[in-house]
Amino acid sequence: MIISNFFRALKYMATSGGNFKFIAKNIATIYYVINNSEFGKQLPESQKLFATALCDTMAYTFSGKLSEDDIMEAVFAGTVIAEGSRGLYKKYENMKNRDLINVTMQIEALIFSVDTNVSPIDIINSVINNRKKIATTVNKTLSLGEKCDIYSVVYDNVNIWINDKDFRELVYLYDDDKISRLRAKFGKAMSEMYGEN
Prior knowledge:
12 helices, 197 residues, 0% strand
């Protein structure tokens, strides 16, 4: 019975987009708000993506289920690692909003790893299999902008965070130095994965 329900849930997520679309829509709306704010206009893309991911996962960081470092690593994986890849991301390198889509996929995998008892490899495969739905949702949401049905609620919540001094200081921590430290931390794995010396 439990296995049957598990496969039904996976089938629902795979066929209708399930939470994949919901999370992607939320992340894209958060990004839209940040990107068009005075705060966002001052940030490099890497910090906008981190601020977006942080806003989306705030409940998880407050509860201790995820740390700020988990979020930083997800943003790093969605941007820096994807740049050097020759495999999974290669065919998407010219995709519109590629980094936001990759970061969205990383955040979705993190959220599902906390919210479900599904194995990590099954979560990753499910996220990858739903990449097209995630990308379509991100692009559609960004094109809707303020006309998106969740815009006003997201706008109000995001503005609370981006005007908070502690939140801003945390966003500023995801800088070139932090990215260099993450690159060093994951350097060996990246080299093995992509055959780099």
